[in-house]
Amino acid sequence: MTTSSALITGAASGIGQAVAVALARAGVGVAIGSFDGDPHDPQETLRAVEQVGGKAIVVRADVRDGDQLLRASEEAADRFGGLSWVVANAGILQRQPLAGLSDGLWQHLLDIDLTGVMRTVRAGTSVMRDGGAVVCVSSISGGVLGSAGHTPYAASKAGMLGFVRSSAVELAERGIRVNAVLPGVITSPQSLDPVNSAGEAGLESSAARIPLGRVGQPDEVADVIHFLLSHAARYITGQTLVVDGGLTVAWPT
After folding, report:
1. Among 73, 134, 144, 195, which is disulfide-ready with 178 (CB 3.0 to 4.6 Å)?
2. pTM for this model (two decimals)
3. Residue 111: which of 62, 77, 145, 168 has the closest Cα?
4. Catalytic entry in 153, 167, 229, 247
């Protein structure tokens, strides 16, 4: 029997999929958010949830569409008897040097990576029961460090932190907590893209710069997200938690 429920955007792969599995393993009912153009099949996440004995539904959750996000939130609440948690995870990455960055591409990336987070949280908390929790997935890229070739992405991830702090203050009167996680170098379909991200070779070379000696895995971020959503983090709100194996605190050598 589920005691909590969660809507997760971008849950067809990577960190979102890992969050779905981690929450389902803990008895949370999961709404697997995906969009029609997603190259990853959300049914794979559904099967992974069912393999750990969890309950889930797949919902259309294109973060460019506020009405669709509201319907997804309502569907999750109807299916599981209320909506407890929201994980704003959906985002895209596209490498483009500043000199060639068009207004259109800038707006497109911010619309998904920053405004999409606002739409997700706005929709989810309008349906969410009081005392719920939200986690937004930012990044050390923008959230802590600069990232050449990725100015829209970094700007979105940095802007997300201001959104988290302000929405945490605003929603506190309802007992709703809002926090952010900032993943470092994590193995995922996005980071394995050699065109727009590090690629496999880039991930391997990154390991040498990480104090823990390896890149992270999606489930290691998912466990932190679960903690921030849970009763164990009941007095934590408006905070940012870096999950990077020590990369951003290590003195360059």
Report:
1. 134
2. 0.94
3. 62
4. 153
